[in-house]
Design goal:
By secondary structure, the protein is of the alpha+beta class. It has a four-stranded antiparallel β-sheet.
């Protein structure tokens, strides 16, 4: 159950945290509460499922990473967790997750690789394949053609939660 302060807090964070060394303190000052109370309330809202996800959105193209590819793998189910853990530790892998296979789609492991160019991404992928002995597994490289708007969840209109 949320109260008026929780609704104000959600409204304060839904468009992003302030860019400062202590963003929770800045929000606390805005709401006239302590920094620890901001952290505690956000933790509680997340635990209650009222905030589904709280993380960083990186605008990779603004940082010079012009190529990104989703690499989809067909990994045997008995080792998919092991391979997924290894891929997620690679510096060039930004995202790694498992999904169930679908009819006409045999792939069950997905990882996103960002690079300054397509050639860089392909070289990074080749290094991953060699490092983890993945050449026996089917995969596809799906390069992005467009960049969609990236933003966090919007929980309420700017005027506040109702």
């Amino acid at each position: 159950m949320t109260d008026a302060l929780d609704r104000q807090l959600i409204a304060a964070v839904q468009h992003g945290l302030p860019i400062t060394s202590r963003p929770y303190l800045a929000i606390a000052q805005q709401l006239a509460i302590s920094e620890q109370e901001v952290i505690n309330r956000l933790t509680q809202l997340k635990q209650q499922g009222l905030i589904k996800r709280f993380g960083v959105i990186v605008h990779h193209r603004k940082l010079g990473y012009q190529a990104n590819a989703m690499v989809v793998w067909n990994i045997p189910d008995d080792i998919v967790d092991e391979i997924g853990c290894k891929l997620s530790q690679e510096k060039c892998v930004n995202l790694c997750y498992q999904r169930p296979r679908r009819e006409n789609w045999a792939y069950n492991l997905y990882c996103m690789i960002h690079g300054k160019s397509r050639d860089t991404v392909l070289a990074q992928l080749q290094q991953i394949i060699e490092t983890h002995a993945l050449s026996a597994f089917a995969y596809q490289v799906l390069f992005s053609r467009r960049c969609f708007k990236q933003r966090g969840a919007i929980y309420a209109a700017d005027s506040g939660l109702r």
